[in-house]
């Protein structure tokens, strides 16, 4: 199968909620020499963008979105180890999670995969993570960066709290934030160090923060 056909197939597998196809095509992508990074950004993430847009226009509903999310996770299971086997560049350490009260994790997982793929040591706390845990773990692990994802306007203030907790403890830690309702202006307002609109830019951002 041609490269573009595989990438389009990955996108369609997410849109069509087809877990088996997402997994099979991810394997095929690797067999054909397509990098895991490219399969994620040019295939899967494009599909998830279509699903997000459809959800916003009420063209699909939560059960379908969850099935697309499952297809995305299935594909990521195939692709993620390939990213981890990437070059060991000994870059910095990042503690990342989705803030308390927020169970959205797809975008965060893509950011994790990209950071790992570009050589960062990543500690993924998961989703719905207590705000003090971000800071405590970063302190324990001697991390360089705390990264937090928030997908809802109600959970976005958790990012502000993380900055406050770091300031209260006087820690030498950089912060970076993202998620659909998060903007550059918001991150500036709360005193965060960096914002990225997507996973591809998150890696460049992390590098610039070190
Ligand atoms: C998928 C989804 C779900 C799935 C989540 C599955 C999962 N395992 O993650 C399910 C179905 C479970 C779900 C549940 C809910 N959802 Co929902 N969901 C979405 C949806 C459609 C897509 C999100 C997504 O995965 N996008 C794809 C990924 C790849 O993109 P992304 O998350 O934006 O991430 C990218 C960037 O933002 C960035 N990024 C993300 N994180 C970070 C972090 C850092 C550090 C950096 C630098 C960058 C970065 O990089 C990522 C990759 O490029 C959005 C719609 C939307 N427009 O976002 C609604 C949306 C986020 N959900 C919403 C809501 C309200 C809910 C529910 C409350 C619904 C309900 N009534 O039950 C619950 C939440 C319960 C809770 N306590 O959290 C609202 C939030 C509204 C708001 N602004 O407050 C949205 C915006 C839909 C809407 N228009 O109403 N949801």
TrEMBL record:
Q: Any idea which GO molecular function terms this record carries? A: cobalamin binding; cobalt ion binding; methionine synthase activity
Q: Which InterPro entries match?
A: Cbl-bd_cap, Cobalamin-bd, Cobalamin-bd_sf, Corrinoid_p, Met_Synthase/Corrinoid, Meth_synthase_dom
Q: Name one GO cellular component term.
A: cytosol
The alphabetical list of record keywords is: Cobalt, Metal-binding, Methanogenesis, Repeat
Gene3D superfamilies recorded for this chain?
A: Cobalamin-binding domain (3.40.50.280), Methionine synthase domain (1.10.1240.10)
Which CDD domains does the annotation name? Answer: corrinoid_protein_B12-BD
Question: Which positions fall inside the B12-binding N-terminal domain?
Answer: 1-91
GO biological process: what's one of them? Answer: tetrahydrofolate metabolic process
- Where the record annotates domain B12-binding, the positions are 91-210
Q: To which protein family does this belong? A: Belongs to the methylamine corrinoid protein family.
Q: Which Pfam families would you find in this protein's record? A: B12-binding, B12-binding_2
Q: Which organism is it from?
A: Methanohalarchaeum thermophilum
What's the protein called, per UniProt? Trimethylamine corrinoid protein MtbC1
């Amino acid at each position: 199968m041609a490269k573009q056909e595989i990438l389009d197939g990955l996108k369609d597998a997410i849109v069509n909620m087809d877990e088996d196809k997402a997994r099979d095509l991810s394997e095929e992508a690797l067999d054909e020499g397509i990098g895991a990074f490219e399969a994620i950004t040019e295939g899967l993430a494009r599909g998830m963008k279509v699903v997000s847009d459809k959800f916003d226009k009420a063209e699909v509903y939560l059960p379908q979105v969850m099935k697309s999310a499952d297809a995305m996770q299935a594909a990521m299971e195939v692709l993620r180890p390939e990213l981890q086997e990437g070059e060991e560049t000994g870059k910095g350490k990042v503690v990342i999670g989705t803030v308390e009260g927020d169970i959205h994790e797809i975008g965060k997982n893509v950011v994790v995969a990209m950071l790992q793929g570009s050589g960062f040591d990543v500690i993924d706390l998961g989703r719905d993570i207590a705000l003090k845990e971000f800071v405590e773990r970063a302190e324990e692990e001697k991390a360089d960066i705390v990264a937090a994802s928030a997908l809802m306007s109600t959970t976005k203030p958790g990012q502000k709290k993380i900055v406050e907790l770091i300031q209260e403890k006087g820690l030498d830690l950089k912060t970076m934030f993202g998620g659909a309702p998060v903007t550059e202006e918001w991150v500036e307002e709360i005193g965060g160090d960096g914002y990225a609109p997507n996973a591809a830019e998150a890696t460049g951002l992390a590098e610039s923060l070190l």
